[in-house]
Input
Amino acid sequence: MSKFSTRLIRWHKTNGRKDLPWQKKRTPYKVWISEIMLQQTQVSTATPYFKRFIKEFPNVKKLAETNLDHVLSHWSGLGYYARARNIYEAAKIISSKHKGKVPNSLEELISLPGIGKSTAGAILALGYKKKAAILDGNVKRVLARHRKIEGELSLPSTTKNLWQISEKLLPNDQIDVYTQSIMDLGATVCTKSNPTCEHCPVNQDCLALTQGLVETLPTKSKSKPKPIKKVFWLIPQGPEGDLLLEKRNKKGLWGGLWSFIESEEKEALEDEFHSRFKTKYLNLKRLNKVKHNFSHYKLEAIPYLAELKTQKKYKNSVWVNPKNVESLGLPTPIKRTIEQITTS
Output
């Protein structure tokens, strides 16, 4: 066992995280769900979602037997909804091809939707205690600093180098403890900003620390200003106050979620209203602009509430009471807009 892994394992006994919900009665299934939720999401944000998700879907069988709407309703507000769609599709595959048991080989795991090499490694190491490397954001930062890897993390050459280091440092035993410890080190000590190097168990041979490079490593990619996407939303409201939502296509940012009728031009939205609802009457009430940040762009949406005198059924749409939408998968900006309506 390397000195690096020995020190981390020893450090974890007194300093590691042991009370996270996915660590209690740990199973490969819980590891899988937690690892997917923690992608692009902080522990504090993911924790309540994980608890609700596991309570509703305690195993692969339960998850595979439900429908996508139900899964998305338990993901609503967590963002990056492709993760939820992939979890659901993977659960159906695991249920049909693997008898409901999460696979225990790297090849079978990475063949499933939404599971990459690092997530697969975490499932193997934490769930099955099998020797496998991981390379999530925290581990990348720890290794880049400790070994003074100066290339941008997004570069394939840098990633390849870090994978080689990660695999080389693996211990032959206590792989689950080691894997958790290096993740914990990055999350609690070797943090993105203001790292507490004096508490690090491997600080004595950290090249970034000895050479004064902790604040500059990992090398940061040059950030570009995000483009702004401006849209208009039409929200039909029936005579009893119900709102009409429509399901978006499965592909795309909000794939499979419920949203409003959308257009990039207000005039096109009005034309859509007339053609869809077969009425010349149009009484639009403008609501407050909704802003939301995505990873690649900023959204600015101007919602318009449109009163209807009748409440008919429409394809791929549903009428909902604005005070009772918890059973639907709704993006956060849509939820915020509905809250405007209920409080106005």
